[in-house]
Amino acid sequence: MMNKPRPAARGRRTGKPETRAEILAVARQRFLADGYQNVTLRSIATEAGVDVALISYFFGSKKGVFGAALALSANPPEVLLKALPGELETLPERVLRVMVTTWDDPAHGDPLRVMISAATQDPDVARLLRELIEQEMIGRIAERVGGPDARGRAAAFGTHVAGVIIARYVLALEPLASMSVDELIRHLAPGARLALFPSRPARRPPTPPRS
């Protein structure tokens, strides 16, 4: 008696070479349509017809999927994570250094500039980038610094960093665009630190009595 052929296994697809590209295509469509906040790994997996564990295997996290879907060789939230460990006092310098050195590298910086340019032209990309920065960058910095109004201070600090990025890499504003990393940090770190760790206003010395 001949053995009957086994029916094809049902269920979600496994990791074939083309599966990764299919996942990215779905992820990009979902991110642009629904925004960063509303997309989950499970929703991407469901639409792509794969197991959610496969997406974690390929990309690690939602941030990883986002970076890959937008073809970013350096994903800003992942870059930021490198700067968070360490002393709080030197956090502004570390963040500035890791961001500037990443953007200075053409392999990483060019795709990031494309993303910024796209955000200025496409409201969907702008919304997506805004949500990413608010949740995965400002939110992470706020968690790291803690204390009163941590999120407001983190947002003010993020504004400093964003201003550096726009001035140096988008507008090519001189002499900022030509400064070395060390020189840039020397000029900008004090203001960035004040935004993140505002100090109490100094007391004015008493006015001497008039003679």
Can you tell me the overall shape?
globular
Give the helix level as a range of percent: 55-70%
Give the structural class.
mainly alpha
Distinct helical segment count: 10
Mean pLDDT across every amino acid position: 85
Structure description:
This protein has 211 residues and is mainly α. Helices cover 65% and strands 0% of the residues. It has 10 helices and no strands. It has helices at residues 17-34, 41-48, 52-59, 62-69, 76-81, 91-104, 106-121, 123-145, 150-170, 181-196. The longest helix is centred in the middle third of the chain and has 23 residues, at 123-145. It is globular and about 50 Å long. The protein starts with 16 loop residues before the first helix and ends in a 15-residue tail after the last helix.
Features:
single chain, mainly alpha, 10 helices
Topology record:
Elements: H1 17-34, H2 41-48, H3 52-59, H4 62-69, H5 76-81, H6 91-104, H7 106-121, H8 123-145, H9 150-170, H10 181-196
Helix pairs in contact: 1-2, 1-4, 2-3, 3-4, 6-9, 6-10, 7-8, 8-9, 9-10
Give a concise summary.
The protein is mainly α and 211 residues long. It has helices at 17-34, 41-48, 52-59, 62-69, 76-81, 91-104, 106-121, 123-145, 150-170, 181-196.
